[in-house]
Amino acid sequence: MNVDGYVARGMVGRPVEDPSVPQRVLVAGGAGFIGSHLAQRLLGEGHFVRVADVVPNEYFAPEEYCSEFVEADLRKVEACRKVCEGMDWIFCLAADMGGMGFIHSNNSVILYNSTMITLSMIEGARQAGAKRFFFASSACVYNEANQEDPNSADLTENLAWPAKPQDGYGLEKLYGEEVCLSYGRDFNMETRIARFHNIYGERGTWKGGREKVPAAFCRKAIASTSTFEMWGDGLQSRSFCHVDDCVEGILRLFYSPFVLPINLGSSEMVNMRQLAQLVMSFEGKDLELDHIPGPEGVRGRNSDNTVIKAVLGWEPQISLADGMRRAYNWIKAQIDAEIEASGELDIETLYATSRVVAQQEPEGDEFAARAE
Ligand SMILES: NC(=O)c1ccc[n+]([C@@H]2O[C@H](COP(=O)([O-])OP(=O)(O)OC[C@H]3O[C@@H](n4cnc5c(N)ncnc54)[C@H](O)[C@@H]3O)[C@@H](O)[C@H]2O)c1
């Protein structure tokens, strides 16, 4: 990849001159994992932060992480325009989302819901006169042909095209990127796009089927006593980025003049066996791995950080060992609280395995009805 050319082509936007000047900010999907961390950080920096989401945050009362919570179904452009009104900065993190156990088996639901959200959000932001828009894209946009080798999986930004993402989830994100790029070119709106690579950390989904591998592995390490369940041979490789680094990267990018999609992830790649060993080491466990069939995703994926370093002079800083320990301790505290509340809980039966979330066909026109 011609990195200098990509950087030069992207450095054409207007930066935020003084990020410390208070703004009115919307975090769409802000009750979710990454959105709530972002909202809390922006609130702490003195901005007025409106969160719009279809559900409230699971762990916080609104006043703990935002100035105002609005319940809204963001698949509908009218709802989006309303929540964007009066807002200077828009961060769009809303999506129908989950780990491999969800995205691999729910293509139709994801394609419908997330496409509606992305389109409605950017158009609603335009109609409301917002000047700056951030779109949360994903490493899932990359062409699967470039992710077959678990040992050599560095993804530079140009490798998303020609397009062949593995799942509908990644295709929707790639389409969303193009929509943002077009709106940024055609209208008076600065758009910024980050491709997140496996974000994990405290307050992330950790059970129920939508959780991703870092949380699922922490849960299994805590709950298992004989073997450690793993989908596939465990040689699939990934990098994982702690949510605090993700938030830092979103803001640095948002304030910058860089308009093209950029990787936001760690370049510390591990395979799933190594990740399992790491989480088991936190409490001295060394269980035998039990490899079972399950959705594995691509074979290898790592964030190539050449562009982000050139553009922002920064890349994610938190080591996998430090970040995973924080996530592990938080999940352990959740499980301990459940045990205390119930008096007695068989956590091995409940939490030592993962499940695939089957796609449920909506009743009649339930999709459309929910978008009203
Ligand atoms: N977590 C990751 O590793 C990761 C990786 C790549 C990209 N992303 C992207 O980052 C963003 C945030 O991800 P997250 O991990 O915080 O997920 P999340 O599921 O915790 O947050 C998404 C939020 O969107 C909300 N939402 C869904 N449908 C909605 C609707 N119709 N109207 C309003 N709100 C709706 C959900 O309620 C949820 O609170 C998403 O766009 C996701 O695709 C995340």
TrEMBL record:
Highest taxon above the source species: Eukaryota
Pfam families hit by this protein: Epimerase
Family note: Belongs to the NAD(P)-dependent epimerase/dehydratase family.
Organism: Thecamonas trahens ATCC 50062
Database matches in InterPro entries: Epimerase_deHydtase, NAD(P)-bd_dom_sf
Domain (NAD-dependent epimerase/dehydratase): residue spans on this chain: 25-254
Keywords, ordered alphabetically: NAD
Record's keyword annotation contains DNA-binding: no
This protein's name: Nad-dependent epimerase/dehydratase
